[in-house]
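Minutes, project check-in
Item: structure for the 664-residue chain
Input as provided by the requester:
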Amino acid sequence: MKTVQWIAGHRVDWQRGEVVFGKDIKSVEPKAMAVLKVLVEANGDVVTQQKILDAVWGEVVVAPNALQRCIAQLRKVFADDAKSQSVIKTHPKLGYSLVAKVNKNPVASVATNSRFKSYSLIVIAILALAFGLLKPPTQQSPDSTPKIKQLKMLTSADEAQYGGVIVDGKLIYIQGDNPRQLSIVRQNLSDGSSEVLARELWIEGGLSFDHYNNALLFSRLRLNGAIKCSEVAKLTLDSLSVETLIPCKRGFMTTPNALNAAQVLTIYRDYQGKISLQRHDLSQGTMRDIALELGKLNSLAIEPQSGKLAIISADETQPYLTVGQLEDNEFKVLQQWPLSKELSSSNVRWHTPSKVIIAAEQRLKIFEVGNEESTIAIPSRDKLFAVINYDDRLIVELGREDWDVHSAQLLNSQKSVQSIARSIYRDFDARFRPQHQDMSLLSDRNGGVQLWLQSTQQTQQLTNSQSDVSSYAWSPQGNSLVFVAGDELWSKVVGKQAQRVNLTAKPLRVYQWFEGSAPTALLSGLVDNEQWLMEINLTTGSTRKVMKTDTQWAQRIGDQHYLTNSTDGYLRHIDLKGTLYVAEPIALTKDMKLQWRFIIGTDSGIYFQDKQQNVWRLSSDLLTIKRVGHYDENTLLMTDVDPKTGRFLSDAFKRNIRDFALLD
C-alpha cells in the first residue's frame, strides 16, 4: 500500500498515522488506522466484523466494542457520522464497507469533496449574508460578524505562490522564490492538476486578467544598462506567448489593469518617488496622467462591467479606499472610506459591481457603495494578502513563516543535514526526548503553537492547550514534561491529560526539570511585576525564589550553582552565597562572540555556538572548553545536542510561504 492516499478529499498518511484536511491534522490511533487499511484493501466490498478483528487484533482478546470505537473515531476524523455514512457504511449483522473514493493523487475537488458538500450551503448563505445578497432578520444584532468555518488549502508547494487570478474556473498564479526566475502556473481547481504557462520571468507585483483580449497583464523588471525599470507585459492565454505591451521607461509601472480593449491603467512611480495614475492608449501609443488628489497610490482594481475604479491610497496621516468613475481624464469620487494603517498596503479587489473586498490580516473587509463596511473573520493565524472571486465563493492568498527542524552531525553538519517532521508551517525548538528514540518540537501546523512528538513512523500531537505553548522541558526519564502555555504552568505525563501547576507567580519561560527530593522545574516568572528565577516543586506547587534577574536561559548545574545568559548573550555563573549571589562571566568564553542559545547535554557538558560557526563544549566544572563541531546556515540556531550519537538539532528559517485557500 502507498504511504499516502486520499480518501474523501482527506490526505491519509499511513506512515505517520495522520489524516490531513486543509490545515487540520489529526493523529489516528494505530488500531483505527489498521481498520481503515482493511477497508481500503477491500475495494468497497463488505468486510465482516470477525475478519476485521482477526486482521487487526489477531488472537488478542479485546473488549466487545473495540471495533465500534475505531469506526466511530474514523467517522469523526472524516467528518462522517452514523446517520449519513458517506465514508464508512455499516451493514447490519454483516460488517462494514468503505463507500468513499480512494485516490492515489491529491484531488482538490472543490465540487465533490464530501465535507465541502456538507458545508457548501452554509458557506454560501454566510457569504450571501455578508455581501448583502440576503437580508438579515430584523432581530439580528447589527454588530454580528459572519464567520468562516475553515480554509481548504488549494496549493501547498514548497515555493511561494501569489498574485493570483481566476480565469475560466482555473487559478493562475505566480510561483517561485528567486525574483528573477518566476513562473506563471495554471491550476485546475476540479482535479488539482497544474501546468506552467511561462518561465524565467522577473515579475513585480501580481497578475490581472484582461478579459477583452483573453490575456494576463503584469509588470516585469528590466535592466536598462545599469538602471532598473519596469515594463508592462502580456501573456496571451490562447497562444501562451509573452510580449511587451508597454515598453520600459525611466521609473516603475505597477498593477496594470485593462480599462478596455485598447487602454491600460498603471500606477507609475518616478525616480523622485512621485506616484501617479496613468492611462495608456495602446492603439495610439500615447500616455496621459489622470487627475486625482488621493495622496500616495498603492493598489488599483477595475470593475469590468461598469468600469468603476477602486483605489487604496494614503495622505500624510490617513489611508483611504476610494471608489470612483473615470470621466474623460478626470476621476469622479463616488464614495470614500478611511482605513486603518494596517490596510494601507493591502490589495483591493471587486466582488460585485457595487462591492469591494480588502484582505486585512485575518479578516476580510467588505465595502459597498452607499453602505457601511462589514467584516468577515477568517479562522487562520496566517496573514491574508489578497482575495479572489471564484463563482459564489472566495479564494484567499495567505502567508506564514516557514521554519524547519534540522538534525546534523556535530563534526560534519554540511553533509548530514536532515529535515525532521517537515511541514509548510513553523516547526521549531526541537529536543531529543531523554531515554527514548524520538524527538519533540513546537509547531503551529494545527492552528496554535503546540507540542508534537516525532518518531520514526509518525508525528503525534502531545498538547492541546487553549493557548500557545511558549517553552517546555523534559523530565530526565523522558516520560513527563512541563510547559508554559499562556500565563500558566502545566505538567504532563505522556499519554495522559496535562495538569495545571498552581503557583502565585506568572510563568514566563521554563528551562529545566531536575530531580531532587521531589521533581522540580526551574523557570522565570513575574512576581509583583519583577522577573525572578525560581524553582517550583511540581508535586506541591511550592515556590523558591532563586534570584531577581532578567534572563532568556538558565540551568541548575549543582547545589546553589546556576548558569544563565546575560542580556547581551554571554554566559554567567551564579554562585549563591546565603541570601546573596555572585554573578561572574565564564572566563573561558568571555572573549568569544556567542549565540544566545546554550544546552546542557546528557554528559553534563554545556554546548553552544559562536558566530564563527563553531560548536563548543564547556565542562560542567567550567574549567575546560573544547571545539566539538561546526555548522552552516542550515543549522544555525542549535536547540539540543545528543552527545551519545554526536548529533544536534536546530531551527532553520526557510522563507515566508504564500499559498491559496478556498473559504469553506
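Outcome recorded: Confidence is low (pLDDT under 50) at residues 107-146.
No further action items on this chain.
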